[in-house]
């Protein structure tokens, strides 16, 4: 029973690895699971067939036999729970890895997403330039706390886990803004994530799709 | 080995149940786990002892023997995994319940938090009034999709689960704005959550703290 995920036919980032299928590809590679990819256009993402899989009309989705999931947190968790490689075996350490998954998605990512709102979606609004520093300061406050906790550790809690996979993936979105590089220990943490062979394979796979000649179908 | 959570000494909402300890109290009540509460002031939340428990200086935290967790998603997951009452026994249904937990926290809550930013934190900024409709429209778009998926079901996927607990908790934050009531099926869904005896006990417990005479220590 093969695993099938969905990804953008063409990612808005042109293959920088910031689309969320990269997180799922990375988890699949860390856990050694083969998978197929079904590409969807922006139009198809809003059509009933895709909305049945993903009620919010986004990518990625995850299908495995009669199981269908959405939300990268849920998909990464599912893989981490079933296959070795992303969760520690100690019960308390596993609970803390799950804590970092939620921290990445509910505490660190929201202010980072707000930067996309401010820079892209609200770019032409009259308040855009004036509001941007407020948004950036909110991100800096969170990253200061995160850098304090990370200290000079390699990963957030012991060995690399699904919590690091998610945190690195969320922080990666900040690189184009230059904010990540204001925090050298976090930039180095992200670079350690990107250096993992599983990440490299995930990145290369999404890049190949986004740089392939566009098909005509 | 008792469970100890932290909560605001005085919640900014005055006891409306919107502080995040209510989510954890609710999960503790659904799973029948006794717990103690340690109240923390805003000052104490930023002090080293609390930051050791919660690197982002917030409440709630969760301690149980030598396990310390933060992030409501992680704490509710921990309880749901260990005690009956919040996860279905079928593996696929459980994976979907976890999906709804992440959807509540990573897809639905961020635009709702942005409303707090717009209405409270950025209230005195020159762009506040002009930007508010953009923020509200973003919430409406998500709630339209959520209402479509819920349809006329009682809960998001079969029986009440930790996914519903989290989604109801997130949607509750919208009630003061009036936006929730624009979606009658979602307002009824939230009301079903609030009607559960476990929620009632959780709500009453946080209200008692927030309406008690202030101590002098």
Task: Give a structural overview.
- 2 copies of one chain form a homodimer.
- With 217 residues, chain A is of the alpha+beta class.
- Chain A folds into 2 domains: 3-85 and 198-211, 3-Layer(aba) Sandwich (Glutaredoxin), CATH 3.40.30.10; 91-196, Glutathione S-transferase Yfyf (Class Pi), Chain A, domain 2 (Up-down Bundle).
- In chain A, 56% of the residues lie in helices and 9% in strands.
- Chain A is built from 9 helices and 4 strands.
- Chain A has helices spanning 21-30, 42-45, 48-53, 72-82, 91-121, 128-150, 162-172, 184-194, 197-211; strands spanning 3-8, 35-40, 61-64, 67-70.
- In chain A, strands 2-1-3-4 form a 4-stranded mixed sheet.
- In chain A, strand 3 and strand 4 form a beta hairpin.
- In chain A, helix 5 (91-121) packs antiparallel against helix 6 and helix 5 runs parallel beside helix 7 (162-172).
- The longest helix of chain A has 31 residues, at 91-121.
- Chain A is globular and about 45 Å long.
- Chains A and B meet through strand 4, helix 4, helix 5 and helix 6 of A and strand 4, helix 4, helix 5 and helix 6 of B.
User: Any idea what the radius of gyration of chain A is?
Assistant: 18 Å
Count of DSSP helices of chain A? 9
Secondary-structure class of chain A: alpha+beta
- The number of domains of chain A: 2
Distance between the termini of chain A: 27 Å
Give the mean pLDDT of chain A.
95
Low-confidence stretches of chain A: none
Strand arrangement across the biggest beta sheet of chain A: 2-1-3-4
Strand content of the residues of chain A, in percent?
Answer: 5-15%
How many strands of chain A? 4
């Amino acid at each position: 029973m093969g695993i099938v995920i969905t990804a953008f036919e063409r990612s808005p980032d042109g293959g920088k690895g910031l689309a969320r299928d990269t997180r799922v590809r990375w988890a699949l590679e860390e856990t050694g699971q083969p998978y197929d990819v079904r590409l969807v256009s922006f139009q198809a993402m809003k059509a009933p067939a895709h909305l049945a899989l993903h009620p919010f009309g986004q990518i990625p989705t995850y299908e495995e036999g009669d199981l269908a999931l959405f939300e990268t947190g849920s998909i990464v968790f599912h893989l981490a729970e079933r296959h070795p490689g992303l969760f520690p075996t100690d019960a308390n350490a596993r609970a803390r890895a799950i804590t970092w998954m939620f921290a990445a998605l509910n505490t660190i990512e929201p202010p980072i997403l707000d930067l996309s709102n401010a820079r892209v979606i609200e770019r032409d609004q009259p308040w855009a330039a004036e509001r941007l520093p407020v948004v950036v300061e909110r991100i800096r406050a969170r990253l200061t706390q995160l850098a304090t906790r990370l200290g000079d550790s390699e990963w957030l809690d012991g060995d690399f886990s699904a919590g690091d996979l998610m945190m690195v993936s969320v922080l990666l979105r900040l690189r184009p803004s230059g904010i990540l590089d204001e925090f050298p220990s976090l930039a180095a943490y992200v670079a350690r994530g990107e250096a993992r062979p599983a990440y490299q394979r995930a990145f290369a796979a999404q890049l190949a799709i986004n740089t392939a000649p566009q098909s005509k179908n």
